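Weekly modeling sync, notes
Attendees: S.R. (lead), two postdocs, one rotation student

Agenda item 3: backlog of single-chain predictions. S.R. asked that every request posted to the team notebook include the full sequence so nobody has to chase files. The rotation student volunteered to paste the first one in as an example of the format we agreed on. Action items at the bottom.

Example entry:
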Amino acid sequence: MTAKFKHIMLMVKDIPAAVKFYSEGLGLKVKMSSPGWAELDADGTTLAFHAASEDGQSGASPILSFHVDDVHATVNRLEQMGAELQGRIREPSFGKVAAMRTPDGTIISLLQPAPVEASAQ
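Predicted structure, as returned to the notebook:
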């Protein structure tokens, strides 16, 4: 299966301020907002905000996020093409997640969503 492009993610220090800036300043519609995550509709493309940790970088390069069928296989394939895994593959309740740096330095996020029955528990 081809990876599905899901959203552009920005790491930000203050999600409410970022939501206000993009929604009131640019007129983007707020799809959802919480203290750690927000999504806005940018004419069919989702602009997502993720809370940056205190020591994390905000305002850095956007993160391109993709849903994949098998995160481990995708990580292996991308590593063979010169990408580097950033940290480890994590397994939160909503699936398996990996961050990778492409050969040109862009960060991409890979999510293998949890099966519907597992995430409903």
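Discussion: group reviewed the output briefly. The helical segments are 15-26, 71-80, 116-119.
Action items: rotation student to repeat for the remaining queue; S.R. to check formatting next week.
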